Amino acid sequence: MDIGEFSKITAIAIDTLRYYDKIKLLIPAKVNSRRMYTEEDVEKALIIIKLKKLNFSLDEIKAFFELEKNIEQSEEINDESVKEIEVCLKMIELKYKDIERQEEELRIVKTALNKMIIKTNSLIKNRCC
């Protein structure tokens, strides 16, 4: 699919897609100098969107995909690759811990909101009837 169709499917602006290509985050195939995307690219784009919503930086997202690629190509790993993998892994582990912290904060806020809903509904029910 071309960049326009891909943009509509993923809700990612065309300029952003060009930027992702430039920084080698989401690299489409080139056919007659046109960017052509696959279903696999759609899946990757949706992961990028989700990671961005979780406050991953573009560098962290790139590290995530680099780590995934290095794991898939594990037979070709040399000492330098291991060091790069370790750096990526540390970054991913820190983000994982951050997400766990956010989950705990959300659980606390959710509990407080639920209590407020119950109290408010009770107040309204007692006031009206």
TrEMBL record:
SUPFAM superfamilies for this protein? Putative DNA-binding domain
**What's one GO MF term for it?**
DNA binding
On the tree of life, the source organism's domain of life is Bacteria
Q: Which Gene3D superfamilies match?
A: 1.10.1660.10
Question: Coiled coil: which residue ranges?
Answer: 89-119
Q: Any idea which UniProt keywords this protein has?
A: Coiled coil, DNA-binding
Q: Which InterPro entries match?
A: DNA-bd_dom_put_sf, MerR-type_HTH_dom, MerR_fam
Record domain HTH merR-type: where: 1-67
Q: Does the keyword Coiled coil apply?
A: yes
What PANTHER family does this protein map onto? CHROMOSOME-ANCHORING PROTEIN RACA, REDOX-CYCLING DRUG-SENSING TRANSCRIPTIONAL ACTIVATOR SOXR
Protein known as:
HTH merR-type domain-containing protein
Q: Which organism is it from?
A: Clostridium fungisolvens
